[in-house]
Amino acid sequence: MVQGQKHAVDAIQSSLAKRQVHHAWLFHGPDGVGKELAAMGFAQALVCTEAPSVGCGKCAACTRVANRNHPDVTWVMPEAEQVERGISGRSDFTATPSRDIRIDQVRKLQERLAFRALEAPHKVALFITAHAMNQPAQNALLKTLEEPPRDTILILVSSAPDKLLPTIRSRCSKAAFGPLPLEFIAQKVKAAAKKKDAVDDVLAHQIAAMASGSLARALALDPSALARRKEIIESFEKLVPDDAGAWIALAEVLGEDRPTAEASLDVLQVWFRDVALAQVGSEALINLDLKDLAAEASTRVSPAGIQRRAGLLDEAKNAISQRNGAARLQLERMFVEMFTA
Ligand SMILES: [Zn+2]
């Protein structure tokens, strides 16, 4: 079901094979290493009609799990994440979509779990980003963990399990997902890039190393932009508010043509994310080799400032891709707005 995670997968499969599935699981490990995929596979195994306890991945039940519309499988995640993933629209929420999983979401789930399963032998709840549960939500969930409703299986997926109450953690069976092997990621990167530019071994390994064990992170990196990644970021961080000449010069270099501009914006987008992570003391940076610069940059701009920059970057990206607008001008405008507000 998930490659490169033998240890975790063995633990899950042996519990399924014995048909003694514990009622609560914690899938923990770094981001982008297959936890969520494994959780979905687990849910499929629990509701599959063709290969019970294994999961065929193809039957109607398995397909509905993958499409998030199986009536006995509930996904719980922060509203903001639902919006980011395109599951919900911003307009589905009256207030700003929350980054927390809140108590009303847990209560709603508990109401559902009070009823019998509709089709499958089990009711399954998948908590994606389980550590996003705030304290009241965690306390509410604790009751369900202590007195689980019949035939209910809860799967908590988390890259930060220490943010969960010890009493929650102790009631869960655990499946530990490690960083994926460098070689495994390098091979996947090469395979994914086959159609586009040829990615040689050196570049594939460089990408794999930057991704520090996360396949998702590795695949998000654009190999062709990587060569100039450092240069782009360092040039950007040298820009200062009262040197318009430098913004214009950089816009000229990065905006020489559309592909260059788009790749440069991709690099900067990841970089802003890194700076935001550095601001909250996270070590999960993609530009790991620029950790010190990220830390330094994070002191020069406020969290709101980073959000604003990310928004301006999105606008420039859209303008360049949709309107075929002059890339250089869009970049120039972006820098002006970033540094004159
Ligand atoms: Zn199936």
Could you please describe the fold and organization of this structure?
The chain has 341 residues and is an alpha/beta fold. It has 2 domains: 171 residues, P-loop containing nucleotide triphosphate hydrolases (Rossmann fold), CATH 3.40.50; 119 residues, Zinc Finger, Delta Prime, domain 3 (Up-down Bundle). Helix content is 55%, strand content 7%. The protein is built from 16 helices and 5 strands. The protein has a 5-stranded parallel β-sheet, with helices on both faces. Strand 3, helix 6 and strand 4 form a beta-alpha-beta unit. Helix 1 runs parallel beside helix 2, helix 11 crosses helix 13 and helix 13 runs antiparallel to helix 15. The longest helix is centred in the last third of the chain and has 22 residues. The radius of gyration is 23 Å and the shape is elongated. The protein starts with 5 loop residues before the first helix and ends with a helix. The chain binds zinc ion. Zinc ion binds next to helix 3.
* CATH superfamily annotation of the largest domain: P-loop containing nucleotide triphosphate hydrolases
How large is the radius of gyration? 23 Å
List the domain count as a whole number: 2
The overall pLDDT, averaged over residues, is 89
Structural class: alpha/beta
Low-pLDDT stretches: none
Note the total helix count: 16
- Portion in beta strands: 5-15%
- CATH level-3 fold name of the largest domain: Rossmann fold
**Could you estimate the helical fraction of the residues in percent?**
40-55%
- Spell out which ligands are present: zinc ion
The geometry reads as elongated
| Corresponding CATH architecture of the largest domain | 3-Layer(aba) Sandwich
Order of helices and strands: HEHHEHHEHEHEHHHHHHHHH
Query: What would CATH call the class of the largest domain?
Result: Alpha Beta
Largest sheet: 5 strands, parallel
Count of beta strands: 5
Spatial sequence of strands, sheet with the most strands: 2-3-4-1-5
